[in-house]
UniProtKB/TrEMBL annotation:
Organism expressing this protein natively: Flavobacterium anhuiense
InterPro entries xref list: DUF5009 (IPR032176)
Keyword tRNA processing: no
Domain of life: Bacteria
Organism phylogeny: Bacteria, Pseudomonadati, Bacteroidota, Flavobacteriia, Flavobacteriales
MF terms in GO: acyltransferase activity
Domain DUF5009 positions: 7-186
Keywords: Acyltransferase, Membrane, Transferase, Transmembrane, Transmembrane helix
Alphabetical list of Pfam families matching this protein: DUF5009
Protein name: Predicted acyltransferase
Entry's transmembrane regions: 12-29, 49-68, 80-101, 107-125, 132-151, 163-180, 187-206, 244-262, 274-295, 307-326, 338-359, 397-415
């Protein structure tokens, strides 16, 4: 049994995915407006809100997907399979560019990779019976993990953590917590995760580095990542991961807070009373995060406890405003753009990661350097977008917006044909 979809939640999800697509696809990573960049380390920009917003929204949707609490083997299997499907979609993004077979190169190799990508997408997003979903999810998971730890040349440093991988883990634990516990227990678990994470990070010395610290690459979370997943971490750091092991624990806290707000929105009381409750909760979370920031700095890469409260508070206030405008006042005409993004998030998440890899792999002649080639993405940007703008920041943003328009057209077609791809 599922409750009727909450339009404001779909719109909020759509806005979040839309913003994610823009910040992840600039024309040039060296030309980005500051609000569209992540904070260098401590701090929080609008871009740093995207990931926790999505985790929060996922938690909020749980009470709507399962309004009647019932937990047995069948329900557990559904939660596990959905988590595996999301995890595998994320892990495949790390594997895609590593696929090599039969000595293929260039376009033939790219064609092979695309065939595999569509096969994986069909296996993980297709609408099958639960038995088939289970077999496919477990099978794909075992194949990807086996390749990642096989020691084969092209797969030996495959990144294991990732955005979708973290979302999968948070969904798994948050869903079970929702079905198996009451609100009081959920709050106690949340407090335990956030306070426990702070104590561990702030007071346990880091082997090989010395006293506990919150610095880049020398903190306890980084040490755990490097110890347990050495060689399988974020390529930009190699010794730690922004979606690492220890920092996933407070991320579960973000999911729990979303789940809490979802339960408030599900209350059988006057909608204005719900708005008052969520507005108070959001304000309290923001203030709590800012206060905790004094002792445990707001930091996305560490997913600090202050970051959990602060971002969940902003997410709550945003959703409260949308809930009031859309679901109470009924102003829905302007929502179509974000609605078409919000009902199909996983197809965007997955293929929005594949397309840039494909465009970079397709080589064309560089008009500026005789005899040399550049990727198709660079060619489109340098020779199609840049000449239209004097400011490189505007050119880079224009490319990102063009990419978002491209996806909007695809998602509009899916929406018109009632094609919704679910994990």
């Amino acid at each position: 049994m599922t409750k009727e979809r909450l339009t404001s939640l779909d719109v909020f999800r759509g806005f979040t995915i839309f913003l994610m697509t823009i910040v992840n696809n600039p024309g040039s990573w060296s030309s980005i407006y500051p609000p569209l960049e992540h904070a260098e380390w401590h701090g929080c920009t609008p871009t740093d809100l995207v990931f926790p917003f999505f985790v929060f929204i996922m938690g909020t949707a749980i009470p709507f997907a399962m309004p009647v609490k019932h937990f047995d083997g069948s329900v557990f299997n559904k939660i596990l399979v959905r988590s595996l499907r999301i995890f595998c979609l994320g892990l495949f993004l790390s594997v895609f560019s590593r696929i090599h077979l039969f000595g293929l190169e260039g376009i033939p190799l790219l064609g092979l990779r695309l065939i595999v990508a569509f096969a994986v997408a069909y296996a993980l997003l297709g609408n099958f019976s639960m038995k088939v979903k289970t077999i496919l999810a477990v099978g794909v998971f075992l194949i990807l993990i086996s390749l990642s730890f096989s020691g084969l040349e092209h797969f030996e440093d495959t990144r294991i953590p990732g955005v979708l991988q973290r979302i999968a883990i948070v969904y798994f634990f948050t869903s079970i917590l929702y079905l198996k516990t009451n609100l009081k227990t959920q709050i106690l678990v949340l407090a335990g995760l956030l306070v426990g994470y702070w104590l561990v990070m702030a007071f346990i010395p880091v082997p090989g580095f010395g006293p506990a610290n919150f610095d880049k690459g020398t903190n306890l979370a980084a040490w755990i990542d490097d110890t347990l997943l050495n060689g399988h971490l974020w390529a930009s750091s190699k010794t730690w991961d922004p979606e690492g092991i220890l920092s996933t624990l407070p991320a579960i806290g973000t999911g729990i807070l979303g789940m809490y707000i979802g339960q408030l929105l599900n209350l059988s009381v006057d909608k204005i009373e719900i708005v008052k409750k969520t507005a108070i909760a959001g304000t309290a979370l923001v203030i709590g995060g800012l206060i905790w920031n004094i002792f445990f700095p707001i930091n996305k890469s560490l997913w600090t406890s202050s970051y959990v409260l602060y971002t969940a508070g902003i997410a709550t206030l945003c959703l409260t405003l949308l809930y009031y405008i859309i679901d109470i006042k009924g102003h829905k005409k302007w929502t179509k753009l974000f609605l078409i993004w919000g009902v199909n998030p996983m197809i965007v998440f997955f293929f929005s990661g594949i397309i840039p890899r494909v465009l970079s792999a397709i080589k064309v002649a560089d008009p500026e350097k005789a005899g040399e080639e550049i990727g198709l993405q660079a060619y489109i940007y340098n020779h199609g977008i840049v000449p239209c703008f004097e400011n490189p920041l505007n050119a880079s943003l224009a490319y990102a917006l063009s990419y978002a328009v491209f996806w909007s057209f695809i998602l509009w077609i899916f929406f018109k044909k009632k094609l919704i791809f679910k994990v």
